[in-house]
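Re-run with default settings, no changes from the original entry. Doing this only to confirm the output is reproducible before filing.
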Amino acid sequence: MKKSTMYVGLDVHKNSIEVAIAESGRHSEVRSYGKIDGTLAALDKVARKLEAKGSALYFAYEAGPCGYEIYRHLTKKGYDCIVVAPSMIPRQSGNRIKNDRRDAQMLARLHRAGELTNIYIPELEDEAMRDLTRAREDAKSVERKAKQRILAFLLRHGHRYTGKTAWSGAHFRWISTIKMPHPAQQIVLQESLDALSECTERVNRLTEQIQQLLPQWRMYPVAKALQTLRGVSLIVASTTVAELGDLTRFARPVELMSYLGLVPSEHSSGETTKRGSITKTGNGHVRRVLVEAAWAYRLPARISPKLHKRQEGMPLNICAISWKAQLRLCTRYKRLLARGKATQLIITAIARELCAFMWAIANEVEIQTA
C-alpha cells in the first residue's frame, strides 16, 4: 500500500512547539494539531501517532535560538526535516494577525507547496568551531568597547593622545603617566585599564585555542589553503570556513556573493533601473572579516614574508590563484580610486571579488570526509 504524504509545520519555542498538519493534495485543509511540550520526547510521541496512520512525514520549522537539535533528532530517526530561514518565508503583506497556530499552519502549507528553501545545516564539529570563532568575535567586541570607554573617559577630562598609533606601547605608557584630579577618578581609570587587560587576555586565549584545534578539524585543509590569499589570516580563514562550511556547495561564485549579501540591491521597474548599496543579507560574520581582509589590497601586489610563510608547502595551483587575486584586486583598487569612487565602496567591491577567489581555492582542495 502506497503511503500518503503529510507535511508537518513546527513553530518551535523554548518550552513549547505548535504543530500543524497539511496532507498531500492542494485542496486538503491545513489543520492545527495543537501545542505540545518543547521536548524531544513529546515530539517523538506526535511523530509516532502521525506515522501510525500510514503517512510519510515531512517536517519543517524556522531557524531560531533553539538551534538544530530538532533537525538532527528527526533526521537521525529517518524523518525528512528542513530548517527554514525566517527572512526567506513568503508572507502576505495584508495579513495583520500573527500567532503560533497560524505560523505552524503557514509552514505546513508552504512546505506542501514547495515554497520553502532549507538552510545549510553544519555538522556538529563544524558548529563547534563556529561557536569558538564567534566567541572570539564577541570577546573582541567587548575589548573594543572597553577601549572606547577609556578614550571617552580621558577625553571628557581633557586628556588627548597626540601620538600616531593608539593602544601601542607608547600609548599605554602615556596613560600610565596621567594623574586624575580626584582619587575616585583615578580608581575609575585603573579599573577600566584592568578590565581592558582581562578582555585582551580572553581574546588571546580564544585565538590560541583556534590555533590548536584548527589542525584537528576536517575542514583544516580548506582553511589552510585560504590563508595563501593576501589579507586572509588564521582568523579570517577559520571564520569563513566555520560559518560557510563547504564552499563548493555553491555552484558559482555569484551564488556565494549573494549569500554573503555583497551584491548590489536593485529596485527596477519597466524602463527604470535603480541599484543601491549591497543587500547585507546572509552571513554577516563572514562579510565583516572579508571587508577587513580587503583592506590589504590597497597596497601594491607583493609576496610579503608573512604571506610567503603561509604559502610554504602549498600546491602551486593554489599559490597561482593567490597571486592572480593580488594582481587583479590591487589593480582594481587603483582603478576605482582613480575614478573617484569612495574608499569604502571600493573595499566592498574588493571583498566581493575576494570571496570568488576563495571559492576557486576551495574547489582545488579535497576534503576528507568521515
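Residues 7 and 38 are 19 Å apart (CA to CA). The longest strand covers residues 4-12.
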